[in-house]
Write a structure and sequence with these properties.
single chain; 12 helices; membrane; Probable membrane transporter protein; transmembrane; cell membrane; transmembrane helix
């Protein structure tokens, strides 16, 4: 038996290879800089396979990868503040999941490209929220991030920009972020399973693509400290921009 015998019927060996290559690049970006994996993966992966399939694939991979980080985050996080922002995700994730499940693939791809472009601009701006802490704002940020996660697993930038701008210790901010996404991923798993997005196909692909993604994360982590963070972050931004442009449905006839 060959690898092709284990692939879902709608996924060819060429598509699986492309997904592995995309996962390696996005994993390397995450391992080095701590961000950018979904922003690179989703526009490119959804241009070679169904957005519903690749969103579920990325969710499963990230859920498994993030699980070991949760016990330490639970100990160090401001759990009360995190619980408030998680309330927003409790609403935002199912709404985003609903749109992912009902929209046409091309429409979803356009939305993903626009979302990722907007989030890239947010990253480039260096935005950090430095105002007062309001419960309604925390819930709103959590809802926005949850919606982005439910639709395309791209909920990172709003949460990172919010927590890193707060007057708290960096170790607490990081723990809050990890704990939030642990909860957000759990909500996404439940929402995706309920709507049928977690399928046999996505689970099989996760067993193939997941190890490649993990290798990418490990490679990126090993590069940390050996290369200029400023330069590597610049490369990540360039990769995200390239992913947005390459993933545009308008360019399908040219690039695919």
């Amino acid at each position: 038996m060959t690898l092709a015998d284990f692939l879902p019927k709608d996924v060819s060996l060429t598509i699986a290879t492309a997904l592995c290559a995309i996962a390696f690049v996005s994993g390397t970006a995450r391992g080095f800089s701590g961000f950018g994996s979904a922003l690179i993966f989703m526009p490119l992966a959804s241009s070679v396979a169904a957005p519903r399939l690749v969103a579920a694939l990325l969710l499963v991979i990230d859920f498994v990868a993030a699980a070991p980080l949760l016990p330490d985050a639970w100990r160090k996080a401001d759990r009360k503040a995190t619980a408030v922002i998680v309330l927003g995700a409790l609403v935002g994730v199912p709404v985003g999941t609903y749109f992912l499940s009902v929209l046409e693939p091309v429409t979803t791809r356009w939305i993903i490209s626009c979302f990722v472009a907007a989030l890239l601009l947010l990253l480039l701006s260096g935005w950090r929220y430095r105002g007062k802490d309001h419960a309604w704002l925390s819930v709103g940020i959590g809802g926005l991030s949850g919606f982005c996660s439910g639709l395309a697993q791209t909920g990172g930038p709003p949460i990172v920009g919010y927590w890193l701008g707060r007057p708290i210790a960096p170790i607490v901010a990081r723990a809050n972020i990890v704990l939030f996404f642990g909860a957000s991923d759990f909500f996404s798993m439940v929402s995706y399973a309920t709507t049928g997005l977690i399928s046999r196909e996505s689970l099989v692909l996760s067993l193939i693509v997941g190890p490649v993604y993990a290798i990418g994360v490990a490679s990126g982590t090993s590069l940390f400290g050996r290369a200029s963070e400023t330069i590597f972050r610049g490369i990540c931004y360039a990769l995200i921009a390239m992913a947005v442009i390459t993933g545009l449905p308008a360019l399908d006839r040219v690039l695919r």
